[in-house]
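Narrative progress, year one. The postdoctoral researcher (J.K.) led the effort to move from monomer predictions toward full complexes, under supervision of the PI. The following entry was the first complex the group processed end to end, covering 225 residues in total.
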Amino acid sequence: GAGVSQSPSNKVTEKGKDVELRCDPISGHTALYWYRQSLGQGLEFLIYFQGNSAPDKSGLPSDRFSAERTGGSVSTLTIQRTQQEDSAVYLCASSTKGNTEAFFGQGTRLTVV
Amino acid sequence: GNSVTQMEGPVTLSEEAFLTINCTYTATGYPSLFWYVQYPGEGLQLLLKATKADDKGSNKGFEATYRKETTSFHLEKGSVQVSDSAVYFCALSGTSYGKLTFGQGTILTVHP
């Protein structure tokens, strides 16, 4: 596609439920990133994928968070047993390999009630 | 670890006023520096970047110079427009890829 596509754009879930957020990167971009934008913490790096290399998971806040990238393209961020503090906008970005310029999607706004 | 500090907003200006948003950073080595902009209802967009000391990034009338001696990357524009109203984020990357450390963001509102 023309840009990074994320779905859903909005998600409301009950505390304790699991959620999956999807990201479809720009075609041809081998690098994919997840970030979280929240009122208290600002914009935080979560995880980075590059091709078949082991992902950089250094930003994941707890073991309730995980992400996978199948076939080197689409990625899914999963949050298990959601908590209210997980409420935030989850941003996905992609780039070409070795490029520091990342292109961002419009995000998924997650609200945990 | 790496960190970025931006001037707190919100910043409110009249059209054609001069804009400065301060940004300082802490990092080891030689990071790349960025300004991203988020217009209302839109995603983050790269505004400009600089990859080494004394480089000047520029785009859409905005400029920022990579100052290693003061660890700063202040954003400036000589004459702002209403359409510049947005949230501006300073960021750095200490890696060879797009793992970014962001500042807190500065809300800019420009009135006619």
